[in-house]
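Listing S7. Sequence submitted for prediction.
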Amino acid sequence: MKKIGNLLERISVKDRKPTCIPMDISYSKIKDNMDDNKEYRQVIGVLLYISPVSRLDVSLALNKLSSKNETQTEKDRTVLKKLIMYLNTTKYFNLVINSMSPPVFICYTDAD
């Protein structure tokens, strides 16, 4: 939670409106590479550190964005900011594993 707050301050998106989804369905790949990708890679690195431990809900969006580390576009940067705003909106969501009870796995499937 603290890392998300630090990240928001670092990239100046703290005062933007909240969002309830980590990535738009309409995310598309546009070829207009940005020159400076250092900040983009640093933010992706922080998110990759946070994601596997407590934020599995952003894994798909983070996977798509991290594949563009060297060739990100302005659209990718916008989607990254939206992902960070989603994390801010849901910063109190955590992966909770209770050690007192045995794990319960529930699986739904639809087969014809």
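Caption to Listing S7: primary sequence and predicted structure tokens for the chain studied. Confidence is low (pLDDT under 50) at residues 29-33. The chain is about 45% helix and 0% strand.
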